[in-house]
Each structure stands twice: as structure tokens, then as C-alpha cells.
Amino acid sequence: MNNAENGSAMKHQTGCESDTPVDLDAEFKSSNIQEVLDKLDRELIGLKPIKTRIHEIAALLLVDRLRRQFELTSETPTLHMSFTGNPGTGKTTVALRMGEILKRLGYVREGHLVTVTRDDLVGQYIGHTAPKTKEVIKKAMGGVLFIDEAYYLYKPENERDYGQESIEILLQVMENNRDDLVVILAGYKDKMDRFFMSNPGMRSRIAHHLDFPDYSSGELMAIAKLMLASQNYRFSTTGEQAFVEYIPQRMKLTHFANARSIRNALDRARLRQANRLFASRGKKLTQLDLITIEAEDIRASRVFLEGTPDDHLRN
């Protein structure tokens, strides 16, 4: 086929001139997805590979939207995902922002996030699982379904377990409704790998596998400052130094959950600060007193005193 014939065929297929210009930058600005990407950068410290992948997915959907303007048909991109990593590494936050991006680019209708575990999907007796799973899917349709610790859906050692029924329903919906629902499976990497080996049908429907790394001590300190600032608190100079020392000590102990453990530690520090201020209630307090976390509020932690975590939430 010569160039003239090729151009004629292009016009016939698309109904428009093949060299009609498009303004990608204008399309990007009108989608308002930069606002969501900026929010993700503010909310999450580090995680550069994760943020890069989210940017790549946003670019794919943006170009796909432009293609539809030229009636360039193609299959709807499969965006079901697997998020692996330890607790407190930002998986739920990324899922939430992903829903916003999907909505703004017209991939889903609502963009809301529905977070569930096995207990929300799997029933206790025959005939109970299907309606439970379908009800969850109904709530999530038009948005993102986030299944935490997804590997617990599959229990091969129990032949009377009903998790496989839920998996089969999910597989069907992930294939047939991928233009209005994104499913994200989350959990520890080693357990998710075993889950996918046992369920190849599920692996084949996952387009994006994102592994969330643990935070470094420096990143956790930056996260702590962000968390405090969002609640109108601050460290004193000595308080900040105490928390710098606290973080590596806490990281070595059991049940460490990255940013989640940092949040728990700050909640405990705020509790100690309040009790310290209450104990000196004969004294007039300034605004600075009310917002400042001192070294003594940190060093009273059992991490320093006993070498054990004092998180009130074990994650």
C-alpha cells in the first residue's frame, strides 16, 4: 500500500485526518490529575518506584482518552493490581489516590475505595459466600476494591473452605467489568507470591505488581514531622533528637509496621504530653506549650525503658 492509499485507509478507519493535532498538555490540565499526583507526593515520603508507576498509569489512561476522541478503538486497559509489602508502607493511601485518578480520567464512574478482608467476602456455610462477595462487589462497582491480606481467600488445607468460591466470582467480575472496577490485592510479598502460584487465573488478570519497600529511619522521621504538623504539633529540639534515637530502636523490635508504628508512637507521645501538662496545671500555659512534644514525652516510652514496644495497636 502506497502513502496515499495508507492515508485514505486511515481516514476511513478514524473518520478524521490522520495528522490532526491534539493538545496533550491541555488535556492533562483539564483532567486535574496533577492535583492528585501532587497530593500523593505530599502524603507519602519516598516510594519513588511506586509514584513512577502511578504516573505511568495516568499517562496511559490520558493517551487512551485522546485516542477515543479520534475513534481509535482498543481494548480497555487492564488495571487490576497487586500491592505487596509490609504494613504501614502506604498501600491504602496509594489505592485511594488511584481511585481519584481513575475517576478524573473517566476510567470508572465514582472513584471511591472499598477496603475489605476475607471476612467480608467469605461465608461460614454453604450458600453464604456468593451473596457476601456479590454485595461487596456491588458496593465497589464504579471504583476500587482493595482486598487486604488477599492470600487468606485461599486455604487449600481446608477442603470445606469457601474462599475458592469467592475467588471464582472475583475472577469473573475482574474480566467482565474491568471498564468500571479495579481490584487491588494486597499483602506480604512472599504470601502473595504463593497465592498467585496457586491461583494462576488471578495472576493473569493482574496487570501491575507494585512492591512497596520499607521506609528508612530518615524517611520515618520525615513522616513523623508531617504527621505532627497535620495535627498542629511540633517537636522541640531535644524532642526531635529523642525521636531520632527512638526510631531505630523501635525498628528492631517486634510488630514494627513502618508509618503505622510511627503514628502509634506519636499518639503515645501526645498522651504523655497531655499528662505532663495536666500535672503542672497550676502553671499558665502558652500556645507553644500546647503544641510542643518534648524529649521526656518520647523517652518515657518502653522502647527506651524496657526495650519493648508500647504501641497500643499491634499491626
Description of the molecule:
Belongs to the CbxX/CfxQ family. This is Rubisco-expression protein CbbX. The model is unreliable at 3-16 (pLDDT under 50). The strands form 2 sheets. The chain has a 5-stranded parallel beta sheet, with helices on both faces. The protein has a two-stranded parallel ribbon with strand order 6-7. The protein folds into 2 domains: 77-212, Rossmann fold (3-Layer(aba) Sandwich); 217-303, Orthogonal Bundle (Helicase, Ruva Protein, domain 3), CATH 1.10.8. It is of the alpha/beta class. The protein is built from 16 helices and 7 strands. 32% of the residues are buried.
Question: What's the short story on this structure?
Answer:
With 315 residues, this protein is an alpha/beta fold. It contains 16 helices and 7 strands.
Separate helix tally: 16
Low-confidence stretches: 3-16
Strand order of the largest sheet: 2-3-4-1-5
Helical amount: 55-70%
Radius of gyration: 25 Å
Mean pLDDT: 90
GO molecular function, one term: ATP hydrolysis activity
InterPro entries: AAA+_ATPase, AAA_lid_6, ATPase_AAA_core, CbxX/CfqX_mono, CbxX/CfxQ, CbxX/CfxQ_RuBisCO_ESX, P-loop_NTPase
Region (Disordered): 1-22
Family: Belongs to the CbxX/CfxQ family.
